[in-house]
Write a structure and sequence with these properties.
25 helices; binds calcium ion; 5-stranded antiparallel β-sheet; 4 domains; Beta-Lactamase; Alpha-Beta Plaits; binds ligand C2E; alpha+beta; single chain
Length: 728
């Protein structure tokens, strides 16, 4: 029993005592008092009546009435009550008994006196005495009854509060039990937390004090693991995020609901927190993991194409918008490619929808292989695919990308036992020229794609006419170049390189030419970069090398002076081919003299001078082959390679020679190059010498060899042979 219960108990006992005593005393007392008064008034009436009777007698016989004691006694006898002990006595003025009834005056009685008059003079008095025994007896009975009632009241009052407390406590227990069983039967997880604060108002602890079985099931642990543990640690970072909101439930009394994520369990819960008593927060958890997963699945489905699993139009638009925003910010460009399969409807109609679907899947796979994983390729619906190429810094080469897509379609598709040859038409729109937002860019690419279809399919088409023209020319050139080698449209010219002192031909640089069937001669500056980009430089370079070796062998056999023949080699040839092996094979196949062969490499080739491919090229020097650095001074600023690599010739770039007579800076550069090469024991060649002044200046610096129009332009093989013959 606690203090409050004890005080309630004491108070109720005191009240019970008071009330019981009051009832026991007051009820009989009141009863006695009222009954006594009633008795007295009865006696008064009786004495008055009796006195009246005697008075009448006295009046009728004023002198002798005293002697009629018998008659008076009889009258008194009649007047007296028979049921109770009552005596009636008549006294004369001397208090002598004149008459009385037979009863004896009871020991405990009540008396009443009444005077008897005769002519206004008191002649006697009548006194009536009645016993109080019946009254006392009935009062005793009433007292007993009151005491009994008081006892009942006493016991009732004394135990009533105690019983009500007990009842209330039992009700509370019952309620708690129900509450617990309710919590236990709940499918929501329930956790109660005790929150305490330090004196400065800061959070001190947030502890789990109770959980239900759903909660332990949800979080996959035992009740003892949860109860007593720190809530903020148990329920992770996501719970901590909502701490300030959680604590506010104490202030406003409302509940809060938030989503709790436990990434390590891959689980999500809708969490409702409320407070019903101070310092206690109850949280209810509803497991929504499944719903969340299906939401994600739906989202995935909403953003991906069911057939190919590629992103769909919605996702592409989203990413394109993002890309446009980035490109605007970085002032860069991007291109949208819309690819549509040619005559897809025919495949679908003739081979069936299933084959058509399979074909779309395969096309999606092939296209996907052509792109970087950071780029977005989407299926827009039907047989239409869209690709967004983001400019990565260098100039965006949309033509190259489009060609890659077209090329990827070249090998036939095998669907079941069917061999399908598929071509596509591509429309290209470039940001910002052809549209400043995603929708417009796609529309532009669509229009460009339709023009590609109209122009005969199996091609790509830019939205803007200038780009189209450029791409068209390029495409034509590229396509022409593919056949040029087979058709023998390439040929070589040789530009003599003269000894600066003796002015005799010591070498000749082989320069490739393309005799285009319709356009005529195309300069190498136009087609070499394209050949490098498309990879055509590999077979072309090999052809040049073999042709030079073959010419060398022929000229040597003809007894011409054995001059050096230099061949330009592009960096792509070194990077992608076993070039040294190709050179060996060419020498071997033609029987050319390795000592007469020179390879011209540009500085860009030497950047990666630790590469094994380059080392193998330099190993060729063991066969007698020499190596020249072309366009020296225009490439990389680092000259470290000059000391480490065994270089035979440095070719001073034409740009320094052109103004050498007038420009002091160029003079200084050329002088420095020549001095440096002399110190390193490397021969130097000046390119692009056109005038006598240039020649004389170079001679004054003791330049070793001279190449340029001053002596000779690039010559046909025959013209070179004639010159060489003259030199014999
Ligand atoms: P390059 O290797 O620097 O070739 C020298 C270029 O300078 C040649 O132009 C030549 O005609 C030109 N030239 C020579 N002397 C003079 C002169 O006095 N004045 C002027 N204005 N020009 C002179 P070309 O033949 O048009 O070749 C241009 C570039 O094409 C070459 O520059 C080379 O980088 C590339 N190229 C030419 N043939 C081949 C080849 O067979 N293979 C490779 N990979 N590249 C080649
Ligand atoms: Ca060259
Ligand atoms: Ca050059």
């Amino acid at each position: 029993m606690n203090q409050a219960e004890i005080s309630i108990q004491r108070f109720s006992i005191a009240v019970a005592w008071g009330l019981s005593i009051l009832i026991t005393v007051m009820v009989p007392a009141i009863y006695f008092f009222i009954s006594y008064q009633h008795l007295r008034s009865e006696l008064v009436v009786q004495s008055v009546l009796s006195a009246n009777d005697v008075t009448n007698l006295v009046r009728s016989n004023p002198t002798l009435w005293r002697y009629e004691d018998l008659r008076i006694s009889e009258m008194l006898e009649q007047r007296s009550r028979r049921t109770v002990a009552e005596s009636i006595v008549i006294y004369n003025t001397n208090r002598e008994v004149i008459a009385s009834n037979t009863a004896v005056v009871p020991p405990v009685h009540i008396g009443q006196k009444q005077d008897i008059y005769d002519a206004g003079v008191v002649v006697a008095s009548i006194e009536i005495y009645r016993t109080l025994d019946p009254l006392l007896f009935s009062t005793l009975l009433v007292t007993l009854c009151s005491a009994a009632i008081a006892a009942v009241i006493f016991f009732t009052l004394r135990t009533l509060p105690r019983r009500s407390i007990k009842k209330a406590y039992q009700a509370l227990c019952e309620k708690r039990k129900k509450y617990r069983s309710l919590h236990e039967s709940m499918k929501e997880g329930m956790a109660e937390h005790r929150v305490t604060f330090a004196n400065n108002g800061e959070l001190e602890s947030f502890t789990i004090i109770e959980t239900n079985s759903s909660c332990t099931d949800m979080f996959g642990c035992h009740r003892q693991d949860l109860v007593g543990s720190d809530s903020l640690t148990q329920f992770g970072a996501s719970f901590r995020e909502y701490l300030s909101e959680l604590l506010r439930v104490f202030e406003h009394g409302n509940s809060i609901t938030f989503e709790l994520a436990l990434p390590e369990r891959g689980a999500y819960y809708t969490t409702t927190a409320y407070s019903q008593s101070p310092g206690i927060i109850t949280t209810l958890f509803e497991d929504i993991t499944e719903r969340k997963k299906s939401e994600q699945q739906i989202k995935k489905m909403a953003y991906s194409d069911q057939l190919t699993t590629l992103p769909n139009r919605a996702l592409l638009l989203d990413r394109l918008n993002q890309a446009v925003a980035n490109a605007t910010q970085n002032c860069s460009t991007l291109a949208v490619f819309l690819l549509d399969l040619d005559r897809f409807k025919i495949f679908n109609d003739t081979m069936g929808r299933a084959t058509g679907d399979q074909l779309l899947i395969e096309v999606g796979r092939r296209l996907q292989r052509q792109i970087r994983c950071s780029d977005t390729l989407a299926r827009m619906g039907g047989d239409e695919f869209c690709f967004v190429a983001i400019n990565t810094g260098k100039e965006l080469n949309a033509t190259y990308v489009a060609q890659k897509f077209m090329d990827s379609m070249l090998p036939p598709f095998w669907i079941g036992s069917n061999e399908l040859h598929v071509t596509s038409s591509i429309g290209i729109a470039v940001f910002p020229d052809d549209g400043s937002d995603a929708e417009t860019l796609i529309k532009s690419a669509e229009l460009a794609m339709y023009s590609a279809k109209e122009a005969g399919r199996n091609r790509y088409n830019f939205y803007s006419p200038e780009m189209n023209l450029k791409a068209h020319t390029r495409m034509k050139l590229e396509n022409g170049m593919r056949n040029a080698l087979e058709h023998g449209e390439f040929f070589l010219e040789f530009q003599p390189i003269m000894d600066a002192g003796t002015r005799t031909i010591t070498a000749a640089e082989a320069l490739v030419r393309w005799n285009h069937p319709s356009r005529g001669r195309i300069p190498p500056n136009e087609f070499i970069p394209l050949a490098e980009e498309t990879g055509l430089i590999l077979p072309l370079g090999e052809w040049i090398l073999r042709t030079v070796c073959r010419s060398m062998k022929t000229w040597n056999d003809a007894g011409l002076p054995q001059i050096r023949l230099s061949v330009n080699v592009s960096s792509r040839q070194i990077e992608q081919q076993n070039f040294a092996e190709i050179v060996r094979k060419a020498l071997h196949a033609t029987g050319a003299n390795a000592a007469q062969l020179e390879i011209e490499l540009t500085e860009s080739c030497l950047v990666n001078h630790a590469s094994t491919n380059l080392a193998e090229v330099f190993d060729l020097r063991s066969l007698g082959i020499s190596i020249a650095i072309d366009d020296f001074g225009t490439g990389y600023s680092s000259l470290g390679y000059i000391k480490t690599l065994p270089i035979d010739h440095i070719k001073i770039d034409r740009s320094f020679v052109t103004d050498i007579s007038s420009n002091i800076q160029d003079q200084a550069i050329v002088e420095a190059i020549i001095t440096m090469s002399q110190k390193l024991g490397i021969q130097n060649i000046a390119e692009g010498v056109e005038t006598l002044e240039q020649l004389e200046f170079l001679q004054s610096l003791r330049c070793d060899e001279i190449q340029g129009y001053y002596f000779h332009r690039p010559l046909s093989a025959e013209a070179l042979v004639t010159l060489l013959r003259a030199q014999v």
